Amino acid sequence: MISVSYAKHSDPAVAVRLCAAGLAQAAPQLLLAFCGGKHDPLAARAALREVFGPVPVFGGSAAGAIGRAGFGYSGFELGLIAFHDPAVTPQAVVTRDLLRDEHAAGAGLGAEVAGIAGEGDVVLLLFDSVAVTAPLRLHPASAIVDGFHAGFGARPLCLLGGGLLTDMNLSGGWVFDGEAVVKHAAVALVFPPALQAETAVMHGCRPVSAFMEITRIEGAEVYELDGRPALTVIERMLGLPLGGAKGHELTLCATLGEKQGDPFAPYDENAYVNRLILRANPETGSVTLFEKDFARGTRVQIMSRDNSLMLDSVRRGVQEINRVVAGTAPLLGLYIDCAGRGSARSGAPVEEAALVRDGLDPAVPFLGFYSGVEVAPFAQGRSRPLDWTGVLTVLRRRG
Amino acid sequence: MSETPQGALIGQLERELAYYRRECNDLGARLLRLQEEQSQTFREARRSRTVAKLIREAYRLADGDWTPQEIGVPMLEMIIENALCDGAALLHEEAGGERFRVTHAIGAGTEITGHRVAIPSPPEFFFTTARTPIEPPAYELTGILRLPYVLWAYDRPTGHALILGSRSESNVSRPFEPGDQELIEGALSVYIDIMLRKQAELDLRSAKAAAERASAARARFLATLTHELRSPLNAILGFAEMMAPESRYNPSLEDRGRYSALILDAAQYLLKLADGLLDYSHLEQALPSLAPEWLPAGQVLASTVALGAGEGQVRGVEIRLGLVEPALELCIDPVRFRQVLHNLIGNAVKFSPDGAAVEVSLARAEDGGATVTVRDNGVGMRPEDIPRALEPFQQLDQQAARSLGGAGLGLPIAKRLLEAHGGELLLDSAPGHGTTAMIRLPAERVRERPQD
């Protein structure tokens, strides 16, 4: 059995007690906790220990949490997922080496998971997104996930996940690694083979340019598009200069998208891998992406966030999940929601998290968190890190 | 012309492609801008709605079962949730002005609750941005939450202030601006309004409880008074009648002397009772006006102990005074404080067996205050009876009261007098193990004697 609970309080001890009261049973075998980033992580961990005893706790900071009872991104939310039954409780594998080398750490994690995960098993990957705050550098999910795949091997796997943030401003992030509060860590939770996941990836971006080729790129830094400074190209599109603080606002409006499959096939939101723009760099004429998985020669389009598209996508995705799990006995609905989709940031007239919460079959125990990046199976293939998406997964027993 | 028809077609297709690319990019750019304008408009509208939402949600606190002190944190939670900032705090101006105490803080700066900050000439509204020079009052205000971007409002008449802070000006934490005055002042005024309302409710409840207590005390008073007055009056009347010239008893000279002594005892008891009643009645109606002065603690204790020593000798009870720091001074009303101490020592002596000792001592408290302790090893009382002992006319052991005297007003009077000093009276007791009475004085009434 899996139970979920949500609470909001500025005192983490009170939030934990409120959450504990909302759980179906008192003594879980494992806890997954998503803790608002304004909470003191050590105080939150101590409160969890005091209420639940020595039960291992995984998860970490979240820009906000989403539950049936409420949702928000004030930083005082707490979402708990409690696993009470060994038949549904995941095994955990942890690496604390992200700062040294994200790819190598991911590979180590993947290799260790390979030892316990079977073909098609469900694995939830969580890690702290922010590597360094000044200047801001993220732990690139693409490096971690590529490394994970390299370490795990070619067997099929349902890899899901999210980057953990303390807030929408990318101020920090931390991880509950089972025992303690740590940074620069990734946790892989390997679910028992008897479970399978149904996943819908909700998007919200639309191409607003012709294809352009990345002609110069270093890591996550895109210098040129079609031989012209990338920033000039984007500024021209937006019709405004992006120097100074405005560089950060790019995150709010545009992404670069790579279309998978036939580039001239009709628009399909599921065909795009979007990369958020972390900042504009007027000195170099470049833009820094959240991830570094684009390369020289990658053909991209400038994508506009489209709030109505986002909301339509959510409605469709939830409807699809409800259709797929109808008549089964779902164990858990987990929503990994890009923090930027919250209406305070996206400007959407409706909170899309509310659409998920209200639209998902009420029989499904549901919990979500606001993340920095999402990881999900992409185009029936390997899982990839995704930006500006909502990943809704329902766990159920294999039929 | 060397161009072939195929070449011309390719050229036309290339031009057409370029045209469509250009149109696609132009239309895309317009779409992007429209989308962004729409989002921006919505974000602006959201900010406007924030004020209304905050006020609506905050007023719900008025219906909750909160004390005025307790509404601070939920109020800040609502403010942070709606304003999406990194930290927030409520402050209250201390007497004298320009110094504020942080009464509540959440988010970044939680640890500053209880801290005091100096803000010379506090502005009624202020905010900082990346362009604000770090000079007063920006310097002081950004130091409160230790965040660079702050929004501040101060309500001069009530002395309450609210500050919000952000780490950055980008993304959701946009720069603060003059338009935010509505948000911060709205939030602060709602907080003050609810708090005053809660305070009024609390005062009302407290007044009601006091009225009920007074009513119960009056009922007890009437019942007790009847008994307390009748017994000595009966004795006076009875013995006076027996000694009257036309009395049929015709007492002997020796009996007359005994009766006179009994009449005198009863009259003295009545006088003591009347004094106690007057004193208590006065204290019940209003806090006594004290005339406090700084006095050497050792001297106050020693003189009061000496006063009680006579009664101790009569009952065979020794009163011991512990060591008191010579430089320690108490800011007390000398008459009233000695009255309290005398009452406690008198009680301790009264309830101690022959040959026992009563210990009087003084110790400094961790908070800078002081505790005067009067400890006896007498009959003691059950812990559950202690609250009753602090109420008027509540002699726990009526039989002992008869034999030992006292109308049950000493402890209630002592309690009221100590409350008037800003202190409190605590009792710790167990049957057969004696009673410890503790007088706690706050830090502002205790000091080391200033050096000349």
Automatic annotation (TrEMBL), chain A:
Domain FIST: 27-229
Domain of life: Bacteria
A Pfam family recorded for this sequence: FIST_C
InterPro entries the UniProt entry points to: FIST_C (IPR019494), FIST_domain_N (IPR013702)
Record-annotated FIST C-domain domain positions: 230-378
Name assigned to this protein: FIST C-terminal domain-containing protein
Source species of the chain: Roseicella aerolata
TrEMBL record, chain B:
CDD domains: HATPase (cd00075), HisKA (cd00082)
Endpoints of the signal sequence: none
The entry's keywords: Coiled coil, Kinase, Phosphoprotein, Transferase
Top-level EC class as recorded in UniProt: transferase
Catalysed reaction, written as an equation: ATP + protein L-histidine = ADP + protein N-phospho-L-histidine
Annotated coiled-coil segments of the chain: 10-37
EC number from the UniProt entry: 2.7.13.3
Domain Histidine kinase: 224-445
SMART domains: HATPase_c, HisKA
GO molecular function: phosphorelay sensor kinase activity
Name of protein: histidine kinase
Biological classification of the source: Bacteria, Pseudomonadati, Pseudomonadota, Alphaproteobacteria, Acetobacterales
